[in-house]
Design brief:
heterodimer; A: 256 residues; mainly alpha; B: 276 residues; alpha/beta; six-stranded mixed beta sheet; four-stranded antiparallel beta sheet; 10 helices; 23% strand; globular; disordered N terminus
């Protein structure tokens, strides 16, 4: 029993220490942001790597999520005789919730793991040490552009996810199930307000900061071995996914 | 008397006095003294695990000594802040064991990297400097190759070109001969000597390849048990009567450095069935 308590206490202390390290790292990233933005080319390159290269998975997933939403929504709304509201339901669900959350989970799996493994391998192959020896700060030169690239890419990906998702819902609802096209779009236009869109934008920005920070932290601090890089990559996905869902609940509660 | 703003020209570029350093309770250096003469090629040798690479990291400020002094170009490394340390490192070049080339850049951009980070030179000038350095290591024709297209020897030479691109005063090599074929090894050996003499720099080479390093070094230090076991011209170390020095320099499998890692009694362990 005493052993269990000791392990629990140790686990709690370790978690707090990790949280403190994360907080210090994120504070440094935020402090370095203005200077890093001056090296615009490096950030744009990373927006391409984190964003553009994630487009296929984001668009495909958005389409299928939207189509499922169209089917389920139609089935539910038909019971109440209000299938014309499908556009509103799909748009609100995607813009406020599914777009930012699912895009962030996919971002963590696609771009986050790429960031963590790239940085981990740079650590394992002494590339980061070599930069230190060349009097180049690896946080400024390598970590910051990757962090900012993710922060910029994430809201854009969430927006694209939502748009493609709405298209998928329309494909199923209007083209397959026969919902009136005019009703679908006009009800959506009337019911979805700017505040709903802003909620999605805020969420995706927060998720972008969280997922990118977790990925670069885990990669930068990975143990410089093959196993260490693998573990960093796994931790990136696990921690990012849990954080996205936790933050989603907190943000939804605050913005309701 | 030295002019204002310039530091006195000490004959020792690196001076280590009473260095003590431990990791996880294990003492790597107990009281290490070492001098590196300006303009020389100094070899630091010793069996694996004696802390050769650790010593380099202490000299370059990647690690900080527990006690003692590490002075580089007249500045005590431990007292330097981040800015001072980076300023000192700009006067050094370091060749890592595996080259440590940046994998997302090609050969040309790897060599140009320090210039782009630290200077605002116009592109034509950067191009000329990079091609000059690549020519010096015989790889001008490989400028547009990616790092994954290079052999181990070529990667080492590109890293060398990168290490000298800022015209450093001190060039540090960490195990430069590991994994090289005889031709590449000969090329790297020649480059170490020629670059040292042609550029007037000071070279520190960490290696346990006795024959190779003895051919180019002016002075050698043999580390063992956390201290300098012997030092002097490589030829004099080869003729040393000390058991420790002889074992290393002649490559004898057993001697003062035992073949077996400390372990419990062999028979007792086999028969007793205790923990391994």
């Amino acid at each position: 029993m005493r052993h269990v308590v000791r392990e629990l206490v140790r686990g709690a202390v370790d978690s707090l220490v990790l949280l403190g390290r994360y907080a210090r790292f994120v504070a440094r990233l935020l402090a370095e942001t203005p200077r890093a933005l001056l090296r615009f080319g490096l950030v744009v390159e990373q927006v391409y790597k984190s964003g553009a290269l994630s487009l296929v998975i984001i668009m495909l997933s958005g389409l299928f999520v939207g189509m499922v939403l169209g089917l389920q929504g139609f089935d539910l709304l038909e019971r109440f005789g209000s299938e014309e509201s499908l556009g509103t339901a799909a748009a609100l669900g995607l813009v406020k919730e599914l777009g930012p959350v699912v895009a962030a989970l996919l971002f963590a799996g696609r771009a986050g793991t790429a960031l963590a493994s790239e940085l981990g391998l740079m650590r394992a192959t002494d590339q980061l040490s070599a930069m230190e020896m060349m009097a180049v700060d690896p946080v400024r030169r390598v970590v910051m552009p990757r962090f900012l690239g993710g922060v910029v890419a994430m809201p854009l990906l969430a927006g694209i996810f939502s748009m493609i998702g709405i298209f998928g819902a329309q494909l199923v609802g209007v083209q397959m199930m026969g919902v009136d096209s005019g009703q679908f779009w006009s009800q959506m236009q009337g019911a979805v307000e700017r505040g709903d869109v802003m909620e999605g934008v805020v969420k995706s920005c927060v998720f972008g900061v969280a997922c990118s920070a977790i990925a670069v932290y885990e990669g930068y601090h990975s143990v410089p071995t093959a196993e260490g890089v693998g573990r960093a990559t796994t931790r990136t996905v696990v921690i990012s996914s849990v954080m996205v869902l936790l933050l989603d609940y907190m943000l939804t509660a605050v913005m309701m | 008397m030295p002019q204002a703003g310039s530091e006195p020209k000490d004959s020792c570029v690196v001076r280590v006095r009473g260095l003590r350093y431990a990791v996880g309770g294990r003492e790597i250096f107990s009281a290490l003294d070492l001098d590196v003469e300006r303009g020389s090629v100094t070899a630091i040798m010793g069996p694996s695990g004696t802390g050769k690479t650790t010593l380099l990291r202490l000299i370059t400020g990647q690690l900080i000594a527990d006690a003692g002094e590490v002075t580089v170009a007249g500045q005590e490394v431990r007292l330097l802040g981040r800015v001072g340390l980076y300023a000192l490192r700009r006067r050094m070049g370091m060749l890592f064991q595996n080259g440590a080339l940046l994998s997302d850049l090609d050969v040309y951009e790897n060599v140009a990297f320090p210039l782009r980070e630290h200077t605002r030179l116009p592109e034509p000038l950067i191009r000329n400097i990079v091609l000059t350095k690549l020519h010096a290591v015989g790889l001008r024709g490989a400028a547009r190759l990616m790092t994954y297209e290079l052999s181990g020897g070529m990667a080492r030479r590109v890293a060398l070109a990168r290490a000298i691109v800022m015209d450093p005063e001190i060039l540090i090599y960490d195990e430069p001969f590991v994994g090289l074929d005889p031709i590449s090894l000969g090329v790297v050996l020649r480059l170490i000597r020629e670059l040292n003499d042609a550029l007037g720099i000071t070279s520190i080479v960490v290696s346990h390849d006795v024959r190779e390093i003895s051919a180019v070094a002016d002075r050698a230090y043999l580390l063992s048990g956390g201290r300098v076991a012997a030092s002097g011209r490589p030829a004099s170390l080869l003729e040393s009567e000390s058991g420790e020095v002889r074992q290393f320099m002649k490559g004898l499998p057993d001697g003062p450095v035992p073949f077996h890692y400390p372990a419990p009694d062999y028979a007792e362990q086999l028969l007793g069935g205790g923990p391994t």
